[in-house]
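Practice problem. Given the sequence and the SMILES for calcium ion, write out the predicted structure.
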Amino acid sequence: MFCRWFPEVAGHLRPPNLDTKPPACEPVLVRAHAGDKGGSQAGASKPGSALSFATSRCMMTHPVLSPAPALPAQGGELGMLVRACASVSVLLLCASLAAATGGREASTVPSDLPEGNGIAANHPADQGIEKDPAVVFADGFEDCSSPADLRARWDWLIHDGNMRIAQEPDSVHAGKRALELTVPQQSAPLAIAVDKQLGEERDVLFLRWYSKFDKDFAVGRSSVHNGGSISSRYFPGGQATPGIRADGRNKFLANYENENSTGSSPGALNIYCYHPEQGGSFGDHFYPSGRVIPGSEVRSGAATFGPSFVARPEVFPESGRWYCYEFMVKANTPGLHDGRIACWLDGKLVSDFPNLRFRSVEDLKPNHVIIVAHSSSVRPNQTWWYDDIVAATSYIGPQAPVGSK
Ligand SMILES: [Ca+2]
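Answer key:
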């Protein structure tokens, strides 16, 4: 793997407690607290502002795992583009993963994780879901008329000048409103996010949301972070901590996202993860097949996820349509590798990463969620839409239609 990091454009504005080294394959948040009314927030909200979310671009190639060529879309059960082992190089990797996992074939081993309907089935269109005993946070943006209204539910808004409350039917998943995030064409990377610090810490947390990429979404082979994260102490004092390793005591983070090191857009589903066994100073990427970056040659499959790991096909969602994303983070028992991350797309289990260790202390628990859109923006006006966000202590599942109960 070759990972090229671009220096932060607004480095001189970074807080002094951040790592000043160039690499950051991840947004470096320059935050505006939802309660802040001062000028710094106003400045941070301007597209292209020097206070913009500054980060770097990451281009990943590998002598074995070379970028896969763009493939024509194919229909599927979920209407998603599933391309497993799309190139010779990936076939080679899959062969090694099959050997590492005892030759099991993808998606043939039963899982103890749920699929299909979850607690959302009891709350059509998510109406009243916030009152479900398992739900710890929910927002469908129906009571928002402008980004300023987001402050009622969210603790932090990152570059709210790049947010909009969309009301066009195609830009809304359910109800009449959704959150629109747009990265304009500019030379500096930019990230936009809404954060929620949960009041109660839990050992297991699920986060579900609906999102859609603009139909023309394309950022080339560069860094894109998006989707949602579940973390603990990754944002001390409101600052992200990129490039600082997780050590079992200080923090962990898991972000369920698309990334486009293959050159496709919006790219392959994966988990971006800070954990004590991470391969470098920045987070690992976990893919459904078991591929782990960095160090895929020796860290993929059972090497990281243990003998029970089940390799599944890589998943490439399409632009221009809504998907239901959900993932679970289960913190490990201190001293054991029994932590787990599982991911669903439209209610279908698409990846399951067992055998993980996030912590060596009991009190490091998932307590922070974030919805983010980040791009190095080589094309103009790359837009994401998000809607129907729910965090809960049990599987949430896709939204049930109105009148279905
Ligand atoms: Ca909505």
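Check your answer against the key. The chain has one domain: 2-392.
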